[in-house]
């Protein structure tokens, strides 16, 4: 099955995100500009609240649990909200290290193989929105002086409305009035009202067809978000361009 939200768009400067999300910009110049085709393993700006203080920091997309060896391939891009506390890979982060991932759109594929068609999912006004995430850190026991690996997984839920016609899952969209509850890890519980409100939050988003160029990470420019023209199917994607979960 394909990764949910296997590509997305992050275009806002972390300094501006920090203003909008009432956070501190902690990226220290490590942001290298807008990305129009973010793929897993990319470093992206994320809002977290360690010790109750909101901070924007860069994290690598692909969660590596503290006990896992990154070299063994234990990298997790998505986490199902229904089973967060049941999975050893996610339980600790779900209780103690929840995050919000700012984005302007995500891409999703409908269909399989050569018949697959890419869609962009975004707000009609192109504004930034946030989806739920989990973050983790891991120190390399063989390099105790090295900085920890800070990594991220995007939380998914059942798709709603028109999004169900594209994929049965979607990122868990967190509306502004539920952001504080998702970030608050003081009780160790996952707030049930945030997933329950995902359907309503997702109604502000609309899918539309885009070019198959989005299937290749070689393409990373604003034209990827342009609606597909009549009779235009874009550039054919190459085998292996769509990420899959095995």
Structural Rg: 17 Å
CATH superfamily: SOS response associated peptidase-like
Q: Helical segment tally?
A: 5
CATH architecture: Alpha-Beta Complex
* Overall number of strands: 14
Organism: Rhodococcus rhodnii LMG 5362
GO molecular function, one term: single-stranded DNA binding
Keywords: Covalent protein-DNA linkage, DNA damage, DNA-binding, Hydrolase, Lyase, Protease
Family: Belongs to the SOS response-associated peptidase family.
In brief:
This protein is mainly β. The protein has helices at 14-20, 91-96, 179-183, 193-196, 198-202; strands at 7-10, 24-25, 35-38, 43-48, 55-61, 78-80, 98-103, 105-110, 117-122, 129-138, 149-158, 169-171, 173-174, 206-209.
Q: How would you summarize the topology of this molecule?
A:
Layout (H helix, E strand, L loop, with lengths): L6 E4 L3 H7 L3 E2 L9 E4 L4 E6 L6 E7 L16 E3 L10 H6 L1 E6 L1 E6 L6 E6 L6 E10 L10 E10 L10 E3 L1 E2 L4 H5 L9 H4 L1 H5 L3 E4 L37
Parallel strand pairs: 2-5, 5-11, 6-11
Antiparallel strand pairs: 1-3, 1-8, 4-5, 4-7, 7-10, 8-9, 9-14, 10-11, 10-13, 11-12
């Amino acid at each position: 099955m394909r990764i949910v939200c296997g590509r997305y768009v992050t275009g806002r400067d972390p300094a501006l995100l920090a203003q909008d999300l009432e956070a501190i910009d902690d990226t220290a110049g490590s942001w290298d500009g807008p990305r129009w085709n973010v793929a897993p393993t990319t470093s992206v700006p994320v809002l977290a609240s360690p010790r109750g203080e909101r901070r924007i920091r860069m994290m690598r997309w692909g969660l590596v649990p503290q006990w896992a060896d990154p070299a063994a391939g234990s990298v997790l891009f998505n986490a199902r909200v229904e089973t967060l506390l049941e999975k050893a890979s996610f339980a600790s982060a779900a209780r103690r290290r929840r995050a919000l991932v700012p984005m302007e759109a995500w891409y999703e594929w409908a269909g399989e193989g050569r018949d697959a068609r890419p869609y962009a999912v975004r707000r009609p006004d192109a504004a930034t929105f946030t989806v739920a995430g989990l973050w983790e850190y891991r120190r390399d026991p063989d390099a105790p002086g090295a900085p920890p690996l800070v990594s991220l997984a995007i939380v998914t839920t059942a798709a709603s409305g028109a999004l169900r016609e594209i994929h049965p899952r979607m990122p868990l969209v967190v509306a502004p009035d539920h952001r504080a509850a998702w970030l608050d890890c003081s009780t160790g519980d996952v707030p049930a009202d945030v997933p329950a409100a995902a359907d309503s939050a997702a109604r502000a988003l609309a899918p539309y067809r885009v070019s198959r160029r989005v299937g290749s990470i070689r393409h990373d420019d604003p034209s990827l978000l342009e609606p597909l023209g009549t009779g235009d199917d874009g550039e054919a994607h190459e085998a292996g361009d769509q990420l899959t979960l095995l």
